[in-house]
Design goal:
The protein has helices at about 5-10, 15-20, 30-35, 40-55, 60-80, 85-90, 135-150; strands at about 100-105, 115-120, 125-130. With about 160 residues, it is of the alpha+beta class. The protein folds into two domains: about 5-80; about 85-150, Double Stranded RNA Binding Domain.
Length: about 160
Amino acid sequence: MSRQSCAGVAKELGLGDHLVGFAGGIPGEELQRISRSRNVLAAVLEAAIAAVYLEHGFERIEPAIVAAFASRIEYARSSHVDYKTELQEALARSGRQVHYTVLEVDGPPHDRRFACAAHVAGTQLGIGKGSTKKAAEQEAARQALEALGVVPERI
């Protein structure tokens, strides 16, 4: 499960509101920031899934987990392309490798923006921007694939 998927499901389930409702002693502004943080929401959902799994076992919780992630599972199965993996595999066939560099990091700690570049044999082939380093690298890899004339496969 990706952090982005977990955070999305957590938002759909209203876990941020539950955090606000059960938290005590945290200043209101800080509590609101925490309850909307993608990393916090994803971590809370992961912890909740783990706790329910340990208490009830896989068979009892599987239907609820699959239902909560159904749209994301279908998206990943039918349309998502992992550009970084596609690029790495395409380059491996010719004995080359990709290297990513962080070009820029902007914004406060809870709302960062990253710019990353994909380099192949010392040549920059793509630049990506995103709210996470991984997202920026994915976009840089997509551009690098395009520059190399490689059409990624859907998984």
